[in-house]
Amino acid sequence: MEIKRLTDALSVTPQIAPEDVKKIKDAGFRAIVCNRPDGEGNDQPTFEEIEMAAKEVGLECLYQPVTSGMVLDEQAVEFGKALRALPGPVLAYCRTGTRCTTLWSLSHAKDMSASDILATAKAAGYDMGGVVRRIVNGGKTPTDTGDAKFDVVIVGGGAGGISVASSLKSRMRDLNIAVIDPADIHYYQPGWTMVGAGVFDPATTARTMGSLIPKGVHWIKSAVAAFEPHDNAVILDGCRVVKYDRLIVCPGIKLDWHAIDGLVDTLGKNGVTSNYRYDLAPYTWELVQNLKKGRALFTQPPMPIKCAGAPQKAMYLSGDHWFREDVLKNIDIQFMNAGGVLFGVKDYVPALMEYVEKYDATLNFFHNLVAIDGPGRKATFEVKKPDEEPTTIEAEFDMIHVCPPQTAPDFIRVSPLADAAGWVDVDQITLRHKQYDNIWSLGDVMNAPNAKTAAAARMQAPVVAANVTADILGGSPQGAYNGYGSCPLTVERGKIVLAEFGYGGTLMPILPKWLINGTKPTRAAWILKEMLLPPVYWGGMLKGREWMAKPEKITVEAPKV
């Protein structure tokens, strides 16, 4: 925790933890303001956790969430009112402190000079040059000129962003590229299923972002606020402007923990866990080891979600542990699926059903988790079966593994790049935006009808790199994405059903059938998942090495004579 003083009445700090609150109290603060929306980061504590800790030591606490980079005039006014109403001094926090400082700067635009705002913010370590420009331009950030300009700007430093940056650099070494991402840590998220089963150590799934940015690529450590595609501009947190010739959008997906009433209050305790968060996956393994009898629920929300097999992977690996420990007969496994099928590609269902039967798991289709009472160990599901009136049921649990509902990030959903559902609108073959010719997208955020998996991003990155390169050289698109995605379904410790498929559920196995028969559980697929895929990810995919991922060529039919 690094507290930075703005005025006698207000200090700001990056994200705090519940254990920091006592130190904040001891430092003389009387109130805390949270300007960071819950669920913005994978390992971010919720506001409720902070508020609970604040109440214990007698601090007032206010939740005023602001989407990164999208500080509205009315939010600044409300922030100013809050500072006047709360007992001071006040400590405000967000991810880095920038949003808090921006709110303060805008709230004082009428009673402080621009130079004083700049100097005060700078003394605390924040550059508010963009705020001054916004003030003197009537509240609108000008995008006709920018603070920086690049040949290619990539929004998002996850699997898709780092991979496509590396693939572009391998094709055009002198290309001036920037990756925009505020995160300090890059996660190998496919490994969290294995963490939740005690196979991987969580630390092996995380590396610093700085160590992964390709050599020669600029890293802009900031969040994106908005897009101005007509001006070829991206507006950053703090209102700075980055201009581009070509833009690639791949910020991932938003895990909407708050969509389930009561969930954020109980995550990581009361038997409530999720492998969809770095800090919670170890708790999954703790719960599995400690459960000797009772009921275990595993939930799956409506599609789309990243790695659609992950909710049932947790169920299979948990069931396998209980089977090996000879306690399975004492445990009632219930799979609560908002959808109507076990897996979307029917060819893999028979093999999966064998394990459903082995673990004596009950499949409950059309059951969507809507609320959870952690202390009471009760979960509420909305049941919407075809041709039936919706009902609500309660289910008791000793352990529950939750997969949260998922949407496109807020700054994407409200942008001109999004389709009606909020996803980046692309051509599903070239991954080029349907409206803006100099914009491409890949990964979980775009609307091509493929599975949202790391394996999909591995195939998409070379396609986007090939097509951006071709566009720079004045040619037509060269790479075609066939919808490939892969889901290694961990049905037991030591065996995996390796689902590989493309658009329309077409089976697309990469390895020969004699080595891995994807419709059957195999030891070879487990070895691939446990021992080969992590080094391929870190040392291959993120380095732009397109092993078994060369983009297909776009075929153009000859004109009929």
Automatic annotation (TrEMBL):
Keyword vocabulary terms for this entry: FAD, Flavoprotein, Oxidoreductase, Quinone, Transit peptide
GO MF annotation terms: FAD binding; hydrolase activity; quinone binding; sulfide:quinone oxidoreductase activity
Domain Beta-lactamase hydrolase-like protein phosphatase-like residue range list: 3-109
Domain (FAD/NAD(P)-binding): residue spans on this chain: 150-266
Swiss-Prot/TrEMBL cofactor(s): FAD
Pfam families, sorted: BLH_phosphatase, Pyr_redox_2
GO biological process terms, semicolon-separated: sulfide oxidation, using sulfide:quinone oxidoreductase
Tree of life domain: Bacteria
SUPFAM superfamilies: (Phosphotyrosine protein) phosphatases II, FAD/NAD(P)-binding domain
Signal peptide feature range: none
Protein name: Sulfide:quinone oxidoreductase
